[in-house]
Structure formats: C-alpha cells, structure tokens
Amino acid sequence: MSSSIAKPHPGKPASIKDIARLAGVSHSTVSRALRNHPLVNPDTAKRIALLAQKHGYRPSAIARSLVTQRTFTIGVVVTNISDPFVAGVVGGIEEVASAQGFSVFLANANADPEQEVRVVESFDDHRVDGIVVTSSRVGALYVPLLSRRHVPSSC
To answer: What is the pLDDT of residues 23-52, one digit of tens each?
Structure first.
C-alpha cells in the first residue's frame, strides 16, 4: 500500500492503526516491528519504522498501560517544594526513575495533611506504579489502602 494515503486526523500524530493502514499490515505487526520483535520481517520492520517516523507516530502511554497494567509513573508528594533539601531529593528520585524509563509526578502538599491524603488518593486513582511521600504527617491513614492495591509506597 502507498504511504501517500491521508491520515484520518490531519495535524495530529499518527496512531498505530494509521501506520498499520499505511503499511498494509495489522496494528499488532506495527507494534511488534517497532519493538524489534524477531517474528517481523526486517524489510517490513524497516518500512514500518520509516512510516512511523514520517508521520510522527509516538506510542501511546495510555494504550501501553492498558496492555501492561503499568503506567511507568511514580508519584512524589512533598511537604514544601521550596525547601532546598526536598528539591535535591526530588531531583535524585527523578534521575533514578528516568534512567529506568519512569516519569515522575510531583505534588506539593503545602504542609496540609488533608491535601497530602487527597494527593496520595489521586495518585492511586491514576494507578501510578509507586508513591514516595516525604515527611508524611498522616502516612498511617493511607498506607493500608495502598497496600491493599499493591502500590509500593515509601513514607
């Protein structure tokens, strides 16, 4: 199939289904090709990679999380972001997380225990893969919740 077929949503990056249609293959083949799966013919994989690049395809983190049951995110709750010590700790967390392919969501509780609980619950609702709470004043309130959901946490 020709790669000159118009995308269904001009101006938006191509989806995996757009690339599959352009390449004349299934979206599963596109997924495998972009992960260098050995079952995909190398010529097909190269053609798919070129189409993906040409049309601005980027994998969807949301779609990936539905398949893997992981979000590759870590929530970090701090008491006060303006504290230089906290900034250094968060910088270290982000550096290590990034090296492992994780993103970090940061929330400032402003030394408000109720806000801290709301943030932790929100992170849990967003299914982050782990939560780090610095200087928690109310950690005992939500550690059981996170344990039941098997969310690793550190308080």
So the answer is: 999 999 998 998 889 999 999 999 999 999
* φ and ψ of 11, to 5 deg: 90, -15
pTM of the model: 0.64
Same domain, 83 and 143: yes
**Could you tell me if 104 and 76 are in contact, meaning their C-beta atoms sit under 8 angstroms apart?**
yes
Show the tokens assigned to 113. 């225990």
DSSP H or E stretch at residue 130: strand 130-133
Tens of pLDDT, residue by residue over 126-151, are 889 988 888 766 666 666 766 776 66
CA 124/CA 128 separation, integer angstroms: 6
Q: Are residues 39 and 111 in the same domain?
A: no
Domain boundaries, position 134: 70-154
